Amino acid sequence: MRILIVEDNEAVSKVLRHLLMQELHCEVDIAADVSSANALPEQHSYFVVVAELNLPDAPDGEIAQLVLMSYQTPCIVLSSNLDARQRKKLLKLGIADYVLKENRFSYEYVVKLVARLDQNQHVKVLVADDSVVSRKFVKVLLEQQLFTVLEACDGAEAITVLNETPDIQLLITDYNMPNVDGFELILKVREKFSREDLAIIGLSNDTDESLSARFIKNGANDFLQKPFVHEEFHCRVLNTLDSLDMIRSLWEQANRDYLTKAYTRRYFFTQHEKDVSDAGQFALGLIDIDFFKKVNDTHGHDVGDQVLFEFAKRLKNAFGQHFTVARFGGEEFVVAFKGLDGDRAFTVMDKFRQQVNSQPFITDAGELTISFSCGIAKAESTDTNLDTLLHRADLCLYEAKEAGRNKVVL
């Protein structure tokens, strides 16, 4: 990612360049005026341009139009003061945002905004509104922030789009729509998508004072009254997505092992406690890396961590797309084969065992040959809970170790 700063104040440009390079690890070029900036885009392609509004050779904000029209690059405008006329002109042009140069926090906000724009390139937003004019207006605002925007003319179409495009992260929905209105849409969406999966912002030009509370009580993250100003819309969207990122981060910390990124024991039990009753179509594979203590004692815990990380990576590559892979602690892992009987689970696990044993692990201590032992237990009608099934898998694991390790026992 390469960024251009157009700023005649050398101190400001140096501070911004330092913060951008330090936080985002990007390349940054500096131009002191428009004539200097004009020569640079021919040499480089810029992700975003951060430009001072009043430059020596462009005193009335001409740089913004140049960046947007000629460079066709998002523009963040800096200014020490901004009157109402300039503000409206800049927003009409379609800048990404403007920042008043007041203190260090202003420059930190620029860095945060650039990082958010970079993230937005990978974020899909669905706009549901029966008004074409309103829908297109919201779409334009979102595209200025580099979002990928999908559209729906009512709640029913929005549900179809969400089902067909599961990686949508934000839904912006109007209240008054035919077929399925905003409230009903949110209720249906929340039946399938949690707050970790999808954020929702409600919109309405209705004057009912209770709408905002009703939207949020029904499952929306935020609400905006139409008509709204550009800045408020952008701030609400960015704050909602920042909150979504934070919720996801907290969820990851609670449900993912910090080292291997496999699921935790807690998540495993939450997901599969009820699957034990599905006798014959649910099996567990309890895994223990052979002689792992020897790896730590001989090569140190850093190499041991590398082995654990690589082993978990191979487990997830082999089974993670269809089954749950969790780390129970130390060198012990478990795979939940939901939908498989014991024989099929044994077959795929034994094939994986052979692959692991035949492909050395690359570590700081060189290539290490790693094997594992595994006990597999299939759900029976006599199993009362997940613990009883795990106990039987543990007995099979013990049998595999007693038989010389590097074995799978069903």
TrEMBL record:
Keyword Phosphoprotein carried by entry: yes
Domain Response regulatory stretches: 2-116, 124-241
Gene3D superfamilies, sorted: 3.30.70.270, 3.40.50.2300
Family annotation (PROSITE patterns): GGDEF, RESPONSE_REGULATORY
Segments forming domain GGDEF: 280-410
Highest taxon, organism lineage: Bacteria
Location of 4-aspartylphosphate modifications: D174
Keywords on record: Phosphoprotein
Annotated catalysed reactions: 2 GTP = 3',3'-c-di-GMP + 2 diphosphate
Catalytic class of the enzyme: transferase
Enzyme Commission identifier(s): 2.7.7.65
Keyword set includes Phosphoprotein: yes
Pfam families reported in the protein's UniProt record: GGDEF, Response_reg
PANTHER family: DIGUANYLATE CYCLASE DGCM-RELATED, REGULATORY COMPONENTS OF SENSORY TRANSDUCTION SYSTEM
Protein name: diguanylate cyclase
Species of provenance: Shewanella japonica
